[in-house]
Design brief:
Largest sheet: 3 strands, parallel
Number of strands: 5
Radius of gyration: 19 Å
Shape: globular
Strand content: 5-15%
Number of domains: 1
Order of helices and strands: EHEHHEHEE
């Protein structure tokens, strides 16, 4: 069994000196063979920047999270936006679970010109060697019931911090 690859991006999301555009970054993430799991420091830095006596800095922290979320989602990963850097345990726990047991199957329609055209996609879990339905067992040999959830789009919830679409 091959090891799964992933990229962990820890960033504020503040673009200081990029030569590439956000569109370039999203396209690169889309082409990546590994999901990007972004841990945003924006909310923690916002709290620090708002302390009395700090020089006023005009940064759109929500836009920073939105940017990181867009890059993560384009790759099949997800965004974590904890409110501080002290309590990262839930973020790491969820990230590990994603790498160990969760899979997202993405489908891109070849019909780019008409996004309103609906497609029917059939997902089957099949044992490649036999062509029969895939049987998944746990470490004790017990059969694990598999659930396939089909959604129009996939936006993961956050382990901690803000929830919702970014």
């Amino acid at each position: 069994m091959a090891a799964r690859k992933a990229t962990i991006l820890i960033s504020s999301g503040v673009d200081t000196f990029s030569k590439a555009t956000l569109k370039d970054a999203v396209n690169a993430a889309r082409q990546s063979d590994a999901p990007i799991y972004a841990i945003s420091l924006a909310q923690a830095l916002r709290a620090d920047a708002d302390l009395p006596g700090k020089p006023a800095v005009k940064i759109d922290w929500n836009a920073c999270d939105k940017t990181l979320g867009e890059i993560a989602r384009a790759s099949g990963g997800r965004l974590y936006s904890p409110s501080d850097t002290i309590t990262l345990a839930p973020t790491y726990d969820d990230l590990i679970q994603n790498l160990k047991v969760r899979y997202v199957i993405a489908y891109r329609s070849s019909n780019h010109g008409s996004p309103d055209v609906r497609r029917t996609v059939r997902v089957e879990l099949v044992e490649p060697a036999t062509g029969k339905p895939l049987r998944i067992v746990d470490a004790n040999g017990r059969l694990v019931r598999v659930t396939v959830i089909a959604e129009e789009s996939y936006t993961p919830t956050q382990a901690s911090g803000k929830k919702g679409n970014f």
